[in-house]
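#dry-run=false #mode=assembly
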Amino acid sequence: MKTWMKFTFVLCLLGAQVAHGQTDKKQASNKAKPKVRILATGGTIAGAQMSKDEYGYKSGTFSVDNLIAAVPTMKDIADLTGEQVANIGSQDMNDEVWLKLSKRINEVLKSKDVDAVVITHGTDTMEETAYFLNLVVKSDKPVVLVGSMRPATAVSADGPANLYNAVAVASDPRAKGRGVLVVMNDEIHNARNVEKVNTINVEAFASPERGPEGLVNTGKIAWSEPSTKKHTSKSEFNIEKTDKLPRVDIFYAYANMAPDIIEAAVKAGAKGVVIAGVGDGNMTEATLKTLERLHKEGLLVVRSSRVPIGPVLRNSEVDDDKMGFVASGEFNPAKSRVLAMLALTKTNDPKKVQEMFNTY
Ligand code: GLU
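#status=ok
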Protein backbone atom coordinates (compact mmCIF):
# COMPACT_ATOMS: atom_id res chain seq x y z
CA MET A 1 0.00 0.00 0.00
CA LYS A 2 1.30 3.49 -0.91
CA THR A 3 2.10 5.89 2.00
CA TRP A 4 -0.73 8.37 1.18
CA MET A 5 -3.20 5.46 0.99
CA LYS A 6 -2.09 4.17 4.37
CA PHE A 7 -2.42 7.68 5.83
CA THR A 8 -5.97 8.12 4.46
CA PHE A 9 -6.93 4.66 5.73
CA VAL A 10 -5.71 5.44 9.26
CA LEU A 11 -7.55 8.80 9.22
CA CYS A 12 -10.81 7.10 8.15
CA LEU A 13 -10.36 4.48 10.88
CA LEU A 14 -9.78 7.13 13.51
CA GLY A 15 -12.77 9.14 12.30
CA ALA A 16 -14.97 6.06 12.44
CA GLN A 17 -13.74 5.24 15.96
CA VAL A 18 -14.41 8.76 17.25
CA ALA A 19 -17.92 8.75 15.75
CA HIS A 20 -18.53 5.26 17.09
CA GLY A 21 -17.20 6.29 20.52
CA GLN A 22 -19.59 9.25 20.66
CA THR A 23 -22.59 7.07 19.77
CA ASP A 24 -21.45 4.50 22.33
CA LYS A 25 -21.21 7.16 25.04
CA LYS A 26 -24.65 8.54 24.21
CA GLN A 27 -26.16 5.05 24.23
CA ALA A 28 -24.41 4.21 27.51
CA SER A 29 -25.77 7.31 29.24
CA ASN A 30 -29.32 6.48 28.03
CA LYS A 31 -29.06 2.82 29.05
CA ALA A 32 -29.99 1.71 32.57
CA LYS A 33 -26.84 1.04 34.56
CA PRO A 34 -26.26 -2.45 36.00
CA LYS A 35 -27.42 -2.80 39.60
CA VAL A 36 -24.49 -3.95 41.70
CA ARG A 37 -24.75 -4.89 45.38
CA ILE A 38 -21.55 -4.53 47.41
CA LEU A 39 -21.33 -6.97 50.31
CA ALA A 40 -18.58 -5.95 52.70
CA THR A 41 -16.75 -8.38 54.99
CA GLY A 42 -13.79 -6.25 56.19
CA GLY A 43 -10.09 -6.68 55.41
CA THR A 44 -7.35 -4.20 54.65
CA ILE A 45 -9.48 -2.48 51.99
CA ALA A 46 -11.53 -1.22 54.95
CA GLY A 47 -8.48 -0.87 57.20
CA ALA A 48 -7.00 2.18 58.89
CA GLN A 49 -3.38 2.77 59.83
CA MET A 50 -2.58 3.63 63.45
CA SER A 51 -0.17 6.30 62.18
CA LYS A 52 0.89 7.50 58.72
CA ASP A 53 4.52 6.39 59.04
CA GLU A 54 4.04 2.92 60.46
CA TYR A 55 2.85 -0.17 58.66
CA GLY A 56 0.65 -1.47 61.51
CA TYR A 57 -3.09 -1.10 60.88
CA LYS A 58 -6.48 -2.48 61.88
CA SER A 59 -8.50 -4.43 59.30
CA GLY A 60 -12.21 -3.73 58.94
CA THR A 61 -12.31 -0.17 60.34
CA PHE A 62 -14.41 1.46 57.60
CA SER A 63 -17.99 0.55 56.65
CA VAL A 64 -19.37 -0.33 53.23
CA ASP A 65 -20.82 3.19 52.89
CA ASN A 66 -17.35 4.68 53.51
CA LEU A 67 -15.93 2.41 50.78
CA ILE A 68 -18.57 3.44 48.23
CA ALA A 69 -18.21 7.14 49.11
CA ALA A 70 -14.42 6.92 48.61
CA VAL A 71 -14.79 6.15 44.86
CA PRO A 72 -17.54 8.50 43.57
CA THR A 73 -16.90 7.64 39.88
CA MET A 74 -18.20 4.10 40.46
CA LYS A 75 -21.70 5.62 40.37
CA ASP A 76 -21.13 6.45 36.66
CA ILE A 77 -20.83 2.77 35.75
CA ALA A 78 -23.29 1.09 38.13
CA ASP A 79 -26.18 1.69 40.48
CA LEU A 80 -24.65 0.71 43.79
CA THR A 81 -26.13 -0.50 47.03
CA GLY A 82 -24.13 -1.69 50.01
CA GLU A 83 -24.55 -4.13 52.83
CA GLN A 84 -22.24 -5.07 55.71
CA VAL A 85 -22.11 -8.86 56.18
CA ALA A 86 -19.10 -8.86 58.54
CA ASN A 87 -16.20 -6.55 59.38
CA ILE A 88 -13.21 -8.76 60.14
CA GLY A 89 -9.64 -9.37 59.08
CA SER A 90 -9.91 -12.38 56.79
CA GLN A 91 -7.54 -14.40 58.99
CA ASP A 92 -10.68 -14.67 61.17
CA MET A 93 -12.90 -15.86 58.31
CA ASN A 94 -14.84 -18.93 59.39
CA ASP A 95 -17.53 -21.43 58.36
CA GLU A 96 -20.27 -19.36 59.96
CA VAL A 97 -19.48 -16.24 57.89
CA TRP A 98 -19.03 -18.38 54.74
CA LEU A 99 -22.49 -19.88 55.18
CA LYS A 100 -24.06 -16.51 56.01
CA LEU A 101 -22.35 -14.81 53.05
CA SER A 102 -23.21 -17.49 50.50
CA LYS A 103 -26.85 -17.71 51.61
CA ARG A 104 -27.12 -13.92 51.38
CA ILE A 105 -25.53 -13.88 47.90
CA ASN A 106 -27.96 -16.56 46.70
CA GLU A 107 -30.84 -14.53 48.13
CA VAL A 108 -29.87 -11.18 46.59
CA LEU A 109 -28.97 -12.67 43.19
CA LYS A 110 -32.48 -14.13 42.93
CA SER A 111 -33.82 -10.58 42.92
CA LYS A 112 -34.45 -8.68 39.69
CA ASP A 113 -33.05 -5.63 41.48
CA VAL A 114 -29.51 -7.05 41.59
CA ASP A 115 -27.47 -7.83 38.46
CA ALA A 116 -24.18 -8.63 40.16
CA VAL A 117 -22.45 -8.81 43.52
CA VAL A 118 -19.06 -7.44 44.60
CA ILE A 119 -17.61 -8.70 47.88
CA THR A 120 -14.93 -6.69 49.69
CA HIS A 121 -12.68 -9.08 51.60
CA GLY A 122 -9.30 -9.33 53.30
CA THR A 123 -6.64 -10.83 51.10
CA ASP A 124 -5.29 -13.49 53.51
CA THR A 125 -8.07 -16.02 52.90
CA MET A 126 -9.66 -14.43 49.81
CA GLU A 127 -8.78 -17.45 47.64
CA GLU A 128 -10.61 -19.80 50.04
CA THR A 129 -13.78 -17.70 50.26
CA ALA A 130 -13.75 -17.18 46.48
CA TYR A 131 -13.47 -20.91 45.82
CA PHE A 132 -16.11 -21.76 48.44
CA LEU A 133 -18.52 -19.32 46.75
CA ASN A 134 -17.57 -20.70 43.32
CA LEU A 135 -18.92 -24.06 44.51
CA VAL A 136 -22.09 -22.96 46.34
CA VAL A 137 -23.46 -19.83 44.61
CA LYS A 138 -26.50 -20.80 42.54
CA SER A 139 -26.48 -18.11 39.88
CA ASP A 140 -24.75 -17.17 36.63
CA LYS A 141 -24.77 -13.48 37.55
CA PRO A 142 -21.28 -12.03 38.15
CA VAL A 143 -19.80 -12.43 41.63
CA VAL A 144 -16.50 -10.60 42.14
CA LEU A 145 -14.24 -10.50 45.20
CA VAL A 146 -11.92 -7.57 45.77
CA GLY A 147 -9.50 -6.42 48.44
CA SER A 148 -6.37 -4.36 48.81
CA MET A 149 -2.88 -4.79 50.10
CA ARG A 150 -2.58 -1.27 51.53
CA PRO A 151 -5.03 0.12 54.08
CA ALA A 152 -7.47 2.84 53.05
CA THR A 153 -5.43 5.48 54.90
CA ALA A 154 -2.07 4.58 53.28
CA VAL A 155 -0.19 6.78 50.82
CA SER A 156 -1.08 5.31 47.41
CA ALA A 157 -3.78 3.00 48.75
CA ASP A 158 -4.67 0.39 46.14
CA GLY A 159 -8.24 -0.21 47.41
CA PRO A 160 -10.08 2.52 45.45
CA ALA A 161 -8.66 1.45 42.05
CA ASN A 162 -9.27 -2.24 42.84
CA LEU A 163 -12.86 -1.51 43.90
CA TYR A 164 -13.56 0.58 40.79
CA ASN A 165 -12.20 -2.24 38.60
CA ALA A 166 -14.21 -4.86 40.50
CA VAL A 167 -17.43 -2.89 39.95
CA ALA A 168 -16.54 -2.51 36.25
CA VAL A 169 -15.95 -6.28 35.93
CA ALA A 170 -19.20 -7.10 37.79
CA SER A 171 -21.08 -4.68 35.51
CA ASP A 172 -19.76 -6.30 32.32
CA PRO A 173 -22.27 -8.79 30.81
CA ARG A 174 -19.28 -10.87 29.64
CA ALA A 175 -18.53 -11.66 33.30
CA LYS A 176 -21.72 -13.74 33.42
CA GLY A 177 -21.33 -17.52 33.65
CA ARG A 178 -17.58 -17.42 34.36
CA GLY A 179 -17.92 -18.45 38.00
CA VAL A 180 -16.66 -16.38 40.90
CA LEU A 181 -13.88 -13.92 40.01
CA VAL A 182 -11.20 -12.08 41.99
CA VAL A 183 -10.05 -8.61 40.91
CA MET A 184 -6.73 -7.35 42.29
CA ASN A 185 -4.00 -5.11 40.91
CA ASP A 186 -5.48 -4.74 37.39
CA GLU A 187 -5.94 -8.51 36.95
CA ILE A 188 -9.03 -10.71 36.87
CA HIS A 189 -8.60 -14.22 38.26
CA ASN A 190 -10.87 -17.22 38.36
CA ALA A 191 -11.68 -18.31 41.94
CA ARG A 192 -10.55 -21.87 41.15
CA ASN A 193 -7.09 -20.83 40.04
CA VAL A 194 -6.15 -17.79 42.11
CA GLU A 195 -3.71 -17.81 45.04
CA LYS A 196 -2.12 -15.20 47.26
CA VAL A 197 1.57 -15.33 46.34
CA ASN A 198 3.10 -12.34 48.12
CA THR A 199 2.71 -11.32 51.77
CA ILE A 200 2.90 -7.53 51.31
CA ASN A 201 3.36 -6.41 47.68
CA VAL A 202 0.37 -4.99 45.73
CA GLU A 203 1.13 -7.64 43.09
CA ALA A 204 -0.01 -10.27 45.57
CA PHE A 205 -2.30 -12.51 43.49
CA ALA A 206 -1.60 -14.94 40.67
CA SER A 207 -3.12 -18.01 39.06
CA PRO A 208 0.10 -20.02 38.89
CA GLU A 209 -1.25 -23.01 36.94
CA ARG A 210 -3.51 -21.27 34.41
CA GLY A 211 -2.78 -17.52 34.36
CA PRO A 212 -5.30 -14.70 34.86
CA GLU A 213 -8.74 -14.71 33.26
CA GLY A 214 -8.45 -11.12 32.11
CA LEU A 215 -6.93 -7.69 32.60
CA VAL A 216 -8.74 -4.58 33.83
CA ASN A 217 -7.37 -1.08 33.89
CA THR A 218 -9.45 1.96 34.94
CA GLY A 219 -12.53 -0.16 34.20
CA LYS A 220 -11.42 -1.21 30.66
CA ILE A 221 -11.47 -4.98 30.38
CA ALA A 222 -9.63 -7.49 28.19
CA TRP A 223 -10.98 -11.01 28.79
CA SER A 224 -9.14 -14.29 28.30
CA GLU A 225 -10.73 -17.72 27.91
CA PRO A 226 -13.15 -18.76 30.70
CA SER A 227 -12.40 -21.78 32.89
CA THR A 228 -13.83 -25.06 31.61
CA LYS A 229 -14.32 -26.46 35.12
CA LYS A 230 -17.76 -26.81 36.73
CA HIS A 231 -18.91 -24.05 39.09
CA THR A 232 -21.85 -22.08 40.58
CA SER A 233 -25.19 -22.97 38.96
CA LYS A 234 -23.77 -26.29 37.64
CA SER A 235 -22.22 -27.29 40.97
CA GLU A 236 -23.72 -30.22 42.91
CA PHE A 237 -23.06 -28.58 46.30
CA ASN A 238 -25.90 -26.90 48.12
CA ILE A 239 -25.52 -25.20 51.50
CA GLU A 240 -29.00 -23.67 51.75
CA LYS A 241 -30.01 -26.08 54.54
CA THR A 242 -26.52 -26.48 56.04
CA ASP A 243 -25.63 -24.78 59.30
CA LYS A 244 -22.37 -26.62 60.05
CA LEU A 245 -19.58 -27.82 57.76
CA PRO A 246 -17.51 -30.97 58.39
CA ARG A 247 -14.12 -30.34 59.99
CA VAL A 248 -11.13 -30.79 57.69
CA ASP A 249 -7.58 -30.03 58.92
CA ILE A 250 -4.39 -29.33 57.00
CA PHE A 251 -1.02 -30.82 57.98
CA TYR A 252 2.27 -29.48 56.66
CA ALA A 253 4.75 -32.24 55.80
CA TYR A 254 8.49 -31.96 56.53
CA ALA A 255 11.54 -34.15 57.13
CA ASN A 256 10.94 -36.56 60.05
CA MET A 257 7.18 -35.75 60.20
CA ALA A 258 5.41 -37.70 62.98
CA PRO A 259 1.76 -38.75 62.55
CA ASP A 260 0.52 -38.45 66.16
CA ILE A 261 -0.78 -34.90 65.68
CA ILE A 262 -3.09 -36.20 62.92
CA GLU A 263 -4.50 -38.79 65.32
CA ALA A 264 -5.16 -35.94 67.78
CA ALA A 265 -7.11 -34.02 65.11
CA VAL A 266 -9.26 -37.06 64.33
CA LYS A 267 -9.98 -37.48 68.05
CA ALA A 268 -10.98 -33.78 68.12
CA GLY A 269 -13.53 -34.38 65.35
CA ALA A 270 -11.76 -34.06 61.97
CA LYS A 271 -13.64 -35.93 59.24
CA GLY A 272 -10.99 -35.22 56.63
CA VAL A 273 -7.34 -34.21 56.41
CA VAL A 274 -5.30 -32.53 53.71
CA ILE A 275 -1.56 -33.15 53.72
CA ALA A 276 0.55 -30.28 52.38
CA GLY A 277 3.02 -32.90 51.25
CA VAL A 278 6.64 -32.53 50.24
CA GLY A 279 7.20 -32.62 46.47
CA ASP A 280 4.43 -34.43 44.61
CA GLY A 281 2.33 -34.86 47.78
CA ASN A 282 4.74 -37.14 49.65
CA MET A 283 5.18 -37.68 53.40
CA THR A 284 7.04 -39.98 55.80
CA GLU A 285 6.34 -43.73 55.74
CA ALA A 286 5.00 -43.51 59.33
CA THR A 287 2.48 -40.83 58.28
CA LEU A 288 1.38 -42.85 55.24
CA LYS A 289 0.78 -45.96 57.39
CA THR A 290 -1.23 -44.01 59.96
CA LEU A 291 -3.32 -42.34 57.25
CA GLU A 292 -4.02 -45.69 55.56
CA ARG A 293 -5.39 -47.01 58.86
CA LEU A 294 -7.36 -43.83 59.63
CA HIS A 295 -8.89 -43.95 56.15
CA LYS A 296 -10.13 -47.50 56.85
CA GLU A 297 -11.80 -46.04 59.96
CA GLY A 298 -13.61 -43.45 57.77
CA LEU A 299 -11.22 -40.48 57.43
CA LEU A 300 -11.04 -38.70 54.06
CA VAL A 301 -7.36 -38.21 53.12
CA VAL A 302 -6.29 -35.72 50.44
CA ARG A 303 -2.68 -35.42 49.28
CA SER A 304 -1.76 -31.87 48.23
CA SER A 305 1.65 -30.20 48.24
CA ARG A 306 3.58 -27.50 50.07
CA VAL A 307 5.32 -26.72 46.74
CA PRO A 308 3.68 -23.61 45.18
CA ILE A 309 3.53 -24.76 41.55
CA GLY A 310 2.72 -28.06 39.81
CA PRO A 311 -0.01 -30.68 40.24
CA VAL A 312 -0.11 -33.60 42.67
CA LEU A 313 -0.49 -36.66 40.48
CA ARG A 314 -2.54 -39.70 41.41
CA ASN A 315 -0.62 -42.98 42.02
CA SER A 316 2.81 -41.46 41.37
CA GLU A 317 5.04 -42.30 44.35
CA VAL A 318 2.06 -43.10 46.60
CA ASP A 319 -0.38 -45.87 45.63
CA ASP A 320 -3.59 -43.86 46.09
CA ASP A 321 -5.76 -46.69 44.74
CA LYS A 322 -4.45 -49.08 47.40
CA MET A 323 -4.35 -46.57 50.28
CA GLY A 324 -7.77 -45.00 49.55
CA PHE A 325 -6.40 -41.46 49.13
CA VAL A 326 -7.38 -38.52 46.93
CA ALA A 327 -4.74 -36.63 44.89
CA SER A 328 -5.39 -32.86 44.83
CA GLY A 329 -4.26 -32.18 41.24
CA GLU A 330 -3.79 -28.41 40.84
CA PHE A 331 -5.37 -27.49 44.19
CA ASN A 332 -3.13 -26.11 46.91
CA PRO A 333 -3.81 -27.27 50.50
CA ALA A 334 -6.20 -24.39 51.32
CA LYS A 335 -8.35 -24.93 48.20
CA SER A 336 -8.20 -28.72 48.70
CA ARG A 337 -9.60 -28.22 52.17
CA VAL A 338 -12.55 -26.16 50.86
CA LEU A 339 -13.46 -28.80 48.28
CA ALA A 340 -12.96 -31.65 50.78
CA MET A 341 -15.32 -29.96 53.27
CA LEU A 342 -18.06 -29.62 50.65
CA ALA A 343 -17.38 -33.14 49.33
CA LEU A 344 -17.89 -34.48 52.86
CA THR A 345 -21.38 -32.96 52.96
CA LYS A 346 -22.18 -35.66 50.36
CA THR A 347 -19.74 -38.59 50.67
CA ASN A 348 -16.42 -39.81 52.10
CA ASP A 349 -15.86 -42.33 49.28
CA PRO A 350 -12.39 -41.42 47.91
CA LYS A 351 -13.32 -42.49 44.35
CA LYS A 352 -16.28 -40.09 44.30
CA VAL A 353 -14.27 -37.34 45.97
CA GLN A 354 -11.44 -37.81 43.44
CA GLU A 355 -14.01 -37.33 40.69
CA MET A 356 -15.04 -34.04 42.33
CA PHE A 357 -11.39 -32.91 42.43
CA ASN A 358 -11.15 -33.67 38.72
CA THR A 359 -14.44 -31.89 37.90
CA TYR A 360 -14.35 -28.63 39.86
N1 GLU B 1 -4.97 -9.91 57.48
C1 GLU B 1 -5.73 -8.98 56.73
C2 GLU B 1 -6.91 -9.64 56.01
O1 GLU B 1 -6.79 -10.63 55.35
C3 GLU B 1 -4.83 -8.27 55.86
C4 GLU B 1 -4.71 -8.72 54.48
C5 GLU B 1 -5.46 -7.83 53.53
O2 GLU B 1 -6.66 -7.63 53.58
O3 GLU B 1 -4.74 -7.38 52.67
O4 GLU B 1 -8.00 -9.13 56.14
